[in-house]
Specification:
By secondary structure, this protein is α+β, with helices and mostly antiparallel strands. The protein contains seven helices and nine strands, in the order E-H-H-E-E-H-E-H-E-H-H-E-H-E-E-E. The protein is about 25% helix and about 25% strand. The longest helix is centred in the middle third of the chain and has 15 residues. The structure holds coenzyme A (COA). The site of coenzyme A has 18 residues, from strand 4, helix 4 and helix 6.
């Protein structure tokens, strides 16, 4: 395994970098990602309780190349005891922390690489760095609800089918799943409802840039699955699917 080329620093130690973030990373996420109602009640407490698991990645010259963060939970190592996905891991980490339950597992919640540095292997460095931080904190297990970036091209395909697709060389088809796998992570289970976004029809039209004139299912830009629209109830529901992988 090659030594990481980037250094992780807790984001709270470098507030001066916050300004760069919007220009370097802002285009990464579709708007609907920010409308998971299950995240809101826990977001601020997550940032407060687990600030030391929230990092910027800097290159050898101290330049910002990416970011990553995780949350700690107690997990017994079985598929049955996995959180339902991203949002459930967030909830569980905060509630367990407040209940005084000692964690033993890091859940990698996200990683991003600045747009002009993608495809150069920084993501692997970030994950290795985060793994090392977990071990240093006494978290012996490391898991991740991985959001497969290529899945948006296959929104009709069930996540459990997509997660198993491989290339001719045997490597996983999805580049982000593959990056995790290259670091030794294995697929544990699909998380078909890792996040749930709910909104009115007008909100979904604004978030997706699409007219949604009838009830039914829609392929939406950057959606990994279909949007379900019920015009009678004035409601659209989307479940973002992820894949649970285990690093350590
Ligand atoms: C996903 C992400 C973190 C990968 O970072 P990265 O440093 O570019 O990753 P790597 O350089 O290690 O590349 C990983 C693989 O993805 C491929 N890849 C990288 N950027 C790509 C892009 N824009 N489009 C398609 N494939 C890409 C690489 O070719 C590589 O595949 P390989 O196995 O054939 O070598 C980065 O693209 C990103 O920040 N995306 C937006 C945020 C996001 O989706 N995060 C993941 C969910 S939390």
């Amino acid at each position: 395994m090659t030594a990481p080329r980037c250094t992780l620093v807790p984001t709270h130690e470098r507030p001066d970098l916050d300004e760069q973030v919007e220009t370097l990373f802002s285009e990464h996420w579709p708007e609907f990602i920010f409308h998971d109602l299950g995240v809101k009640p826990y977001r601020e407490r997550r940032a407060e309780y687990f600030a030391d698991l929230d990092f910027w990645g800097l290159d050898a010259d101290g330049r910002l190349v990416g970011g990553c963060y995780g949350v700690p939970i107690r997990w017994d190592g079985t598929v049955e005891d996995l959180p339902g996905g991203y949002t459930d891991a967030l909830r569980r980490s905060v509630e367990e922390h407040e209940a005084g339950i000692a964690p033993d597992t890091l859940v990698v919640m996200g990683a991003m690489v600045r747009t002009d540095e993608q495809g150069r292997g920084w993501a692997g460095d970030l994950l290795l760095g985060l793994r090392a931080k977990a071990v240093a904190c006494g978290l012996e297990k490391v898991i991740a609800p991985v959001r497969p970036t290529l899945k948006s091209r296959y929104p009709l395909t069930p996540i459990e089918v997509f997660a198993a697709w491989t290339r001719d060389d045997g490597a996983l088809l999805d580049p982000w799943l593959r990056t995790h796998a290259r670091l030794g992570a294995t697929v544990l289970a699909p998380a078909p409802r890792s996040q749930t976004m709910t909104g009115t029809v007008a909100e979904w039209e604004a978030w997706t840039g699409l007219a949604l004139p009838a009830s039914g299912e829609y392929v939406i830009p950057d959606g990994l699955a279909l949007l379900h629209v019920d015009r009678g109830a004035d409601r659209g529901v989307y479940h973002d699917p992820n894949v649970w992988m285990r690093h350590l």
